[in-house]
């Protein structure tokens, strides 16, 4: 009897102790929950980082929290000064803000995250948080011949900047493209057998590595996806030492492993000069067998073709789904080239050339999408002797006017500065045909003023 009573007493003590421990655990959990709410929302990282220098003008702004945040719709709980418009995206613990256009170069931006933000645990951001970063001045990449007359990639910081040779390919560089964040360059290097291999390297020329190539073949015409993690390029086989366009097919290249796979499966027609819309939803490419520019929706598989002849790549608008296409037209025994703007969403095509006897090529959108610069050669009239000049036109075809009119030089292949205040273009001397290369020039589209940037080279790209 005494042992049984002692056992019951001991069991009662154990139960009581367990209740005390459980109650203490509840009190501790409640205290921790109360304390966590008092601590408030925690920010783990920002991008760009505070006081970051030389930030790309194409950057997005993001904040990483320690817990998922309660989404607040399409309104971003942050402001940017100088004022920037854009779109907001909530994904788990990350809040992202994507500017609707490129930021201005060499500018200090201040980001303010407003107080009152709440995470899924009910914690609140009690004080506004602010940080600043500075965008870079921008760089200009271009192709120019080295001492052995092989084309190489060069970079310069702009007027007065020193030109630096980045590649040293024995046969030369065929083409190149810079990643959206401005940190990586994809380029095609020529081989002795006439083929091309695709390489990646850092924006400073370091870290060169082969990512695509095969014996007896060509890998080139690469374009970056907006996420900077994928490229699309063209693979062709050689025939008699030249690329065979009938074998041209589009391939994905996925980073960082550099894995290649066909964009389309099965027996597909040839495809050249791919281009991706700014949001990455649409792919365009030249379809020689269909004599046009094909557009393909990578999300739902919709496809259409816009008539285009002349082998000129299409160019997507910086916002929306408008495509600049070229059309070769025979006019009184003259072969002309006209530009038009095709709206992929509704199929509407707007003529831009509005002249008959002209060759309009190499169009380029301004960063805000309000102007289109292009190369025009007039085939008749008083300006026919002027050769190629830079023209400007609105996307609806209005306000077309020449930006250059130089009897001594021809200008072409325009590329806008990130802030839209200047146009980079290639110049050719008309008087001295023995040495026609006049290098790269900077054009002020508002005044028509020109400044020579380099004495040689072309195919320039302005990178923020």
Mean pLDDT across every amino acid position: 86
Uncertain segments of ≥5 residues (pLDDT<50)? 1-38
Judging by the overall fold, what is the CATH architecture of the domain at 362-464?
A: 6 Propeller
Name the overall outline. Answer: globular
So what's the CATH class of the domain at 362-464? Answer: Mainly Beta
Name the helicity range. Answer: under 10%
Alpha-carbon distance between the two ends:
90 Å
**CATH level-4 homologous superfamily of the domain at 362-464:** TolB, C-terminal domain
Q: Which range does the strand content fall in?
A: over 45%
Reported by name, the CATH topology of the domain at 362-464 is: Neuraminidase
Q: List how many beta strands DSSP finds.
A: 37
Using only C-alpha atoms, the radius of gyration works out to 29 Å
Largest sheet: 5 strands, antiparallel
Structural class: mainly beta
- What is the count of DSSP helices, taking H or I runs of 4+ residues? 1
């Amino acid at each position: 009897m005494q042992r049984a009573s002692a056992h019951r007493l001991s069991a009662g003590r154990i139960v009581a102790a367990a209740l005390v421990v459980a109650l203490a655990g509840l009190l501790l959990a409640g205290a921790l929950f109360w304390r966590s709410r008092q601590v408030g929302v925690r920010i783990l990282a920002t991008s760009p980082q505070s006081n970051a220098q030389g930030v790309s003008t194409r950057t997005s702004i993001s904040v990483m929290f320690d817990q998922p945040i309660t989404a607040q719709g399409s309104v971003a709980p942050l402001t940017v000064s100088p004022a920037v418009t854009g779109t907001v995206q909530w994904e788990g613990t990350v809040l992202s803000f994507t500017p609707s256009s490129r930021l201005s170069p060499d500018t200090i931006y201040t980001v303010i995250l407003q107080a009152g933000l709440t995470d899924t645990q009910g914690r609140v951001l009690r004080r506004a948080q602010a940080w600043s970063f500075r965008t870079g001045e921008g760089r200009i990449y271009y192709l120019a011949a080295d001492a052995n007359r092989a084309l190489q990639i060069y970079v310069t910081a702009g007027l007065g900047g020193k030109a630096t040779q980045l590649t040293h390919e024995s046969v030369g560089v065929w083409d190149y493209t810079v990643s959206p964040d401005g940190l990586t360059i994809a380029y095609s290097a020529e081989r002795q057998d006439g083929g091309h291999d695709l390489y990646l390297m850092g924006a400073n020329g370091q870290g060169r590595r082969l990512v695509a190539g095969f014996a007896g073949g060509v890998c080139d015409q690469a374009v970056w996806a907006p996420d900077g993690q994928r490229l699309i390029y063209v693979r062709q086989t050689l025939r008699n030492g030249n690329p065979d366009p009938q074998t041209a097919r589009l391939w994905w290249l996925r980073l960082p492993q550099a894995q290649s796979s066909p964009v389309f499966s099965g027996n597909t027609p040839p495809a050249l000069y791919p281009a991706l819309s700014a949001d990455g939803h649409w792919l365009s490419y030249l379809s020689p067998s269909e004599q046009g520019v094909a557009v393909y929706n990578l999300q739902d598989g919709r496809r259409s073709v816009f008539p285009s002849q002349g082998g000129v790549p299409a160019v997507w608008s910086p916002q929306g789904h408008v495509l600049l296409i070229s059309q070769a037209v025979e006019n009184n025994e003259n072969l002309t080239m006209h530009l038009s703007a095709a709206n992929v969403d509704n199929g509407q095509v707007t003529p831009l050339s509005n002249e008959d006897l002209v060759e309009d090529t190499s169009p380029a959108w301004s960063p805000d999408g309000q102007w289109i610069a292009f190369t025009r050669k007039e085939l008749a009239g008083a300006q026919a002797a002027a050769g190629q000049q830079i023209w400007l036109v609105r996307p609806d075809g209005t306000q077309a006017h020449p930006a250059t009119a130089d009897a001594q030089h021809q200008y072409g292949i325009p590329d806008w500065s990130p802030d839209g205040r200047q146009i980079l273009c290639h110049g050719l001397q008309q008087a001295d045909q023995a040495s026609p290369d006049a290098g790269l020039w900077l054009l002020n589209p508002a005044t028509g003023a020109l400044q020579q940037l380099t004495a040689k080279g072309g195919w320039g790209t302005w990178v923020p």
